[in-house]
Amino acid sequence: QVQLVESGGGLVQPGGSLRLSCVASGNISSVYSMAWYRQVTGKQREFVAQANKAGSLTYIDSVKGRFTISRDNVKNTVSLQMNDLKPEDTATYYCKAGPFHGAYSWGEGTLVTVSS
Predict the structure, then answer these.
(1) pLDDT of res. 1
(2) Mean pLDDT across the chain, nearest whole number?
(3) pLDDT for 22-42, tens place per residue?
(4) How many whole angstroms separate alpha carbon 1 and alpha carbon 28?
(5) Which of 4, 5, 70, 71 lies in disulfide reach of 78, CB 3.0 to 4.6 Å?
(6) pLDDT digits (tens, 9 = 90+) for 39-69
(7) CB-based contacts of 34-37 (< 8 A; 24+ apart in sequence)
(8) HEC letters along the chain
């Protein structure tokens, strides 16, 4: 497994942008899935976006056209560019990597708050 550290969260007004970054402690070039999830307190963690090893990108419908995921297998990072942010995007965002023998690595999360 790898250790994951997210950064880039913060407070932004509706319509604004943020870029989240996740740095892995090891090489991710062979890791099948690098993904972002988010969770609101009291609710289940939900999938946001994935970049798989083959280059395929997947998004939850609510962020399509606004969020862009990208992975850099040289820098061992995965980023999430978030544009046109809405209050309903407020959540703690988590980076996920794997699988590693059936298990996944998770970061500690970074908080995104969209509010005027």
Answers:
(1) 86
(2) 96
(3) 999 999 999 999 999 999 999
(4) 10
(5) 71
(6) 999 999 999 999 999 999 999 999 999 999 9
(7) 34/69, 34/71, 34/78, 34/95, 34/96, 34/97, 35/69, 35/78, 35/95, 35/96, 35/97, 36/69, 36/78, 36/80, 36/93, 36/94, 36/95, 36/96, 37/93, 37/94, 37/96
(8) CCCEEEECCEEECCCCCEEEEEEECCCCCCCCEEEEEEECCCCCCEEEEEEECCCCEEECHHHCCCEEEEEECCCCEEEEEECCCCHHHCEEEEEEEEEECCEEEECCCEEEEECC
Give the C-alpha separation, 107 to 66, whole Å: 23
Cβ atoms of residues 77 and 29 within 8 Å: no
The tokens 């090489």 sit on which residue? 27
Q: Which of 64, 73, 67 is nearest to 32 (CA)?
A: 73
- The answer to whether the CB of 51 falls within 8 A of the CB of 115 is no
